[in-house]
Specification:
alpha+beta, 2 domains, four-stranded antiparallel beta sheet, 21% strand
C-alpha cells in the first residue's frame, strides 16, 4: 500500500535570473561618452563651451548609465541595488585614493566616466548571462578606477589632452629641476658680467613685445610661412627644457622672455634666441597649481619703454630691467584687489600704455581692472570689470 509522501516543509527555491538586460541604451550612452570626449579633435579652435562640454559631458552620460541600470535595464531588484551601491562605492574609494594631482576636476572628468563606462560595457557584453554579469561588471569597475589610482597628472597640454605618468615616477617638472640643478649656476639678476652687452631694450626694438604681438591680434605682417609642413617641415635650431606654465614668449632683439614655474618659485626667464641659453632668471616665492592646467604662471611678459612687466598666477606683478632681470618694483593683486586667485589663477598679460601697466584682477566693486604707474608701481586708478 503506497502512502502519500508528507508535504515538504522546505522553502521553494528562489526564481532563477532569466531576464536578458535591455542593453542598447547603455551602449548608446557609452558611445555618447566617447563622442563627447573627442569633440575638440573634430573642431578647429574649439570655444570654451565646446571644451567644457568635452570635459563634463561624459560625466553626465555616466550618471545616465546609473539611471539606466536602476530604471530600465530589466535587472532584478537585487542586482540593481548591489550594482548601484557597489559601483558608487568603488568609484568613491578610488577617488579618495587618487594622487593629489588628479583630485577635484580630474576625478569628474576621468574616474567617474571611465568607471561607469566599464560597468556598462561589461553588462552589455554579458547581458544574457545573469550569473556572471554583475560580478564581472563590478570587477571591471574596480580594475578601471584602480588604474587611475596608479597615475599622476601634470595637467593638460595645448590640445587639452592629459599629461599622465605613473605616480611613482619623477614628474616632468621634477626632471626639469634636476636638469637646472645639474647645470652651471644661472646668471643672477643684475649680474652684468654674465649678461651679454646689448643696446637698451625698448618697444621699438621689440617685434613681438606682448601676448599675441604688438597689436594683440596674433598677426605679424611681412612674414610668409610655408603651410605644407609635410613637404617642408620647419627645422629645429635648438631645444631646451623649461618649467611648467602657460606663458608664451615676447621678443626683443635677440632675446626671448617668458614665465615658468621652478619648484616653489615663479620665474621670469630671459633666453638667448640664437642658442636657447638662459641669460638671466628673476624668481620670487609663489606657486599656483590646479588640476586641469597644472602648475605655473598663466600670463606672458610685456616689453615697454619703461621695462619688462609680468603677472604671476598668484597675482604677483613685477617690473624688471629687461637687460639684467633686476627687480624695480612689485605689487600683489590679492591685496590690491582684495580677492583670492580665480579658479584658473590670475591670467592677465599686462597691457602697458601711456605710462600705465593695466591688468585685470576681477575684484569686487571698482577693483576689477587696475592701472599702476609704470615708473614706480603706484596705483593710478581702478575700475569695475
Amino acid at each position: 500500500m503506497n502512502l502519500p509522501s508528507p508535504a515538504s516543509t522546505a522553502s521553494p527555491p528562489p526564481p532563477a535570473l532569466t531576464h536578458t538586460l535591455r542593453w542598447w541604451p547603455a551602449a548608446l550612452l557609452v558611445l555618447a561618452m566617447l563622442l563627447l570626449r573627442m569633440i575638440p579633435a573634430f573642431v578647429e579652435s574649439p570655444s570654451l563651451p565646446v571644451i567644457f562640454t568635452s570635459f563634463l559631458g561624459p560625466a553626465v552620460a555616466a550618471l545616465l548609465v546609473l539611471g539606466w541600470w536602476l530604471a530600465i535595464s530589466r535587472a532584478t531588484i537585487r542586482e540593481r541595488i548591489l550594482g548601484a551601491v557597489g559601483t558608487v562605492a568603488l568609484i568613491a574609494v578610488a577617488i579618495l585614493l587618487l594622487h593629489p594631482t588628479l583630485s577635484g576636476m580630474s576625478a569628474i572628468m576621468y574616474v567617474l566616466p571611465y568607471g561607469f563606462a566599464a560597468f556598462a560595457i561589461t553588462l552589455c557584453l554579458l547581458a544574457p548571462r545573469p550569473s556572471l554579469r554583475l560580478p564581472v561588471a563590478l570587477a571591471a569597475v574596480a580594475l578601471t578606477v584602480g588604474y587611475w589610482d596608479l597615475l599622476q597628472s601634470a595637467g593638460v597640454d595645448g590640445t587639452f589632452q592629459p599629461e599622465l605618468s605613473w605616480r611613482w615616477e619623477p614628474t616632468a617638472e621634477e626632471r626639469f629641476l634636476q636638469t637646472v640643478a645639474a647645470t652651471p649656476t644661472t646668471p643672477a639678476p643684475g649680474d652684468s658680467a654674465a649678461t651679454p652687452s646689448v643696446e637698451a631694450i625698448t618697444l621699438a626694438s621689440s617685434p613681438w613685445p606682448a601676448f599675441r604681438g604688438p597689436l594683440r591680434d596674433g598677426r605679424q605682417p611681412g612674414i610668409v610661412l610655408n603651410a605644407d609642413w609635410e613637404q617642408a617641415p620647419p627645422k629645429p635650431i635648438w631645444k631646451k627644457p623649461i618649467g611648467p606654465g602657460w606663458s608664451s614668449f615676447s621678443v626683443a632683439g635677440n632675446r626671448l622672455f617668458t614665465q615658468e614655474q621652478r619648484g616653489d618659485d615663479e620665474a621670469v626667464v630671459c633666453l638667448d634666441a640664437t642658442t636657447g641659453d638662459v641669460l638671466w632668471v628673476s624668481a620670487y616665492p609663489s606657486r599656483f597649481w590646479e588640476a586641469v592646467a597644472g602648475a605655473g604662471p598663466r600670463g606672458t611678459p610685456t616689453i615697454a619703454d619703461e621695462g619688462l612687466f609680468a603677472l604671476g598666477a598668484n597675482g604677483v606683478l613685477v617690473s624688471l630691467d629687461p637687460l639684467t632681470g633686476s627687480k624695480r618694483w612689485s605689487r600683489d593683486l590679492q591685496k590690491d584687489a582684495d580677492r583670492k586667485p580665480p579658479m584658473w589663477g590670475f591670467a592677465s598679460s599686462p597691457l602697458v600704455t601711456q605710462g600705465l601697466v593695466i591688468v585685470h584682477a576681477g575684484g569686487a566693486g571698482n577693483k576689477g581692472v587696475l592701472a599702476y604707474r609704470a615708473t614706480d608701481g603706484e596705483l593710478a586708478w581702478s575700475v569695475p570689470s
